[in-house]
Amino acid sequence: MKKFLILALLILFQFCSFGQGRVVINEYLPWASSGCNTTTEFVELYNFGPGPVNIGCYILTEGDFSITIPSNTILQPGQYYLISGQDILPKGCGNLDSAVHVSLNWTTCNCTSGTIPTNNDGLFTDGGNGNEQVVLLDPNLNVVDALVRDPSATEASAFIQTSTLNGNCTSRSFDLDLINIPYETAVGQSTGRGNSFARIIDGDCKWIKESTQSANAPNYSLGDAASISYELTITNSMECNNSKGAISINVIATSYTDIFPMNYTLAYDADNNQLFSSSDQYTSGVDNTPSRIDINDLKAGNYRITLFTPQACNSKTFDFQILECSTVLPVHILSFKHLKTEDNKQSFSWAISEVESVRTILLEQSNHNSGFTTAFHQTIDDRSSGTQTFSAVIPASEARFFRLRITLKNGNVIYSGIISTHSSISVTASKLWPNPAKGSITIQPGTPLPSQLSYKIYNLQNSLVEQGDLHIGSNQYNFTLPVHHLSKGFYQVFIYSVDNFKPISLRFVKD
């Protein structure tokens, strides 16, 4: 009967416009673990950014039931949204590390097309033959994301009538079997009890059957490389006179057939508050030519860019800054330390000079030394001055890499080095003087120096103007580089060492 209805109901689904952010189905568990309830099945959504997305009245379906997300639900960039059949998933049922609070409980939300069973199969069909699709639709039935474990998906029920959520959402009617949906294939292997299906890395196109389910947290698949990788280079870091900032992103892949044209959303922090919200500016773009994406004419300010392929996955987000043409600021991060982890809390301290130039301090965290998010925020009192010491205590988490993001009152941003809570490394003062410089500069990296260092100096156009090696004596804490031969202007010097977690970067002016 359904085959004949296809001619009467020909609905061609297209991936919807993502606007300010990119929402994906990031992980789902179709068959609860032994010892866990049927209602611990879950679907995890993730907003890859760059900005927030209103997912209110979005519809999640596996073909037999639909679940409508309450109106005006805002999913921030980097935030997860967990949909399941109970309020809290016990440790080991949704996440191996901890109990997880659910964002939307389909058993009690009064937001489903019918009563989803709380035993036996539950929402998804159990066992090796279970092969139901998972589809996320926007309020107008445009496909946001769609995947299936195997191309031969389980036949869906007849027409589904979605919930209005007491009149707050428009009811929609559809049958997945009558719709041409561009499915992403999750994996080609049978399901198993307690195994979720997860993207290799949050936002990636590649899926695996994952025994270490990680609801409401980054996926565990750390041993697998992303399908493709990206490298961002700031080709012009400042806006000076008629010269605007510019970036170039290199896309690295074995084949570019299915990758280009590459899509991206560029966010500009219009209100300069270090947050990307609906009040900021967002520009969508498409680049048709492998393997680089070049973006020019960027004015000074803070930016975030999210890239994704035509399949609406392989996502990657970068934060970067274009500086105003101004002198180097006197603020220094004198120290930055992880003090201890105790009672599920982590303690940090840091010292900063010239705090009268500082507007805000963010302590940022990351699981994989990329995609940092805010763990602690502090606004500096206008009456503050001189050198001050600060501290923060945050809940312990999976994050192991931390840095400071300091926003100055003129809008510029400086970062500390990155420290790891899995080592005893701390960051102390990195200084450069005199600045502006005439004949030479002296650099104090702030930690005891190894016997061998290398350095590179770049100009404003990100061109390498000088490089070399340095041999350091015992108990030496600073060194001098000649700059008398450089033209007047702005420069950035990088100091490299095999003992450093990341290169030390300092800016200076040649007078």
Strand order of the largest sheet: 11-8-3-2-18-19
- Determine the number of helices (DSSP H or I, runs of at least 4 residues): 1
Q: What's the CATH C level of the largest domain?
A: Mainly Beta
Structural class estimated from helices and strands? mainly beta
- Name the CATH superfamily assignment of the largest domain: Lamin Tail domain
Unreliably modeled segments: 1-18, 424-429
- The overall number of domains is 4
Distance between the termini: 81 Å
Number of DSSP strands? 43
Radius of gyration: 26 Å
Seen as an oligomer or otherwise, the chain set is single chain
Largest sheet: 6 strands, mixed
CATH architecture of the largest domain: Sandwich
Q: Helix coverage percent of residues?
A: under 10%
Please name the CATH topology of the largest domain. Immunoglobulin-like
What is the residue-averaged pLDDT?
82
How much strand? 35-45%
Describe the model.
It is a single chain. The longest helix has 7 residues, at 2-8. The protein has four domains: 2-210, Immunoglobulin-like (Sandwich), CATH 2.60.40.1260; 229-324, Immunoglobulins (Immunoglobulin-like, Sandwich); 326-428, Immunoglobulin-like, CATH 2.60.40; 430-511, Immunoglobulin-like, CATH 2.60.40. 1% of the residues lie in helices and 44% in strands. The relative contact order is 0.10. The radius of gyration is 26 Å and the shape is elongated. It comes from Paraflavisolibacter caeni. This is Lamin tail domain-containing protein.
